[in-house]
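Before the break, one more example. Copy the sequence into your notebook; we will annotate it together after we see the structure.
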Amino acid sequence: MKIRVKRATLLQDAVDAMESIDAADMRKIFRFEFIGEPALDAGGVAREFYVMVCEQLFNPDCGLFRASSVNQMCMQINPNSAITTEHHLRYFHMAGRVLGKALMDNHITPVHLVSPFPSLPFPFLPFPHCDSYSDSDVEGGGDYLLSGQAAF
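Here is what the structure looks like once it is written out:
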């Protein structure tokens, strides 16, 4: 899969590119290209893409996420994101895809999320009010992802 973006419009280009990819294609190898910059993507361009997109998405000025009141280094969803960003749901969908793809490709992102976001991309999030999930359901989440049955 070829992802072509411009640096000047990186976030919008990334949203458009990630939305155009089918869930099954998320498991394919992505090749990133910054338009107008000749480079061979041997991992460095992909790393730069993930870092730059995450820095823009998780910047509090973007309005999607804000610093946690408990730990200023961790980010949480901004409950007022609909006010600050018109297409906030598109951006949240892309944030999930970018973080999931970066993790699947063994890239480290500069993002620290609060505890409701697990450090591993489980196919579901057990909440305290949901007592139907057992620890074995959560522990098997990584195996479920690796089996290729999880949809992005």
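Residues 122-139 have pLDDT under 50 and may be disordered. The beta strands are 2-5, 31-34, 65-67, 75-77. Try to locate both features in your own notes.
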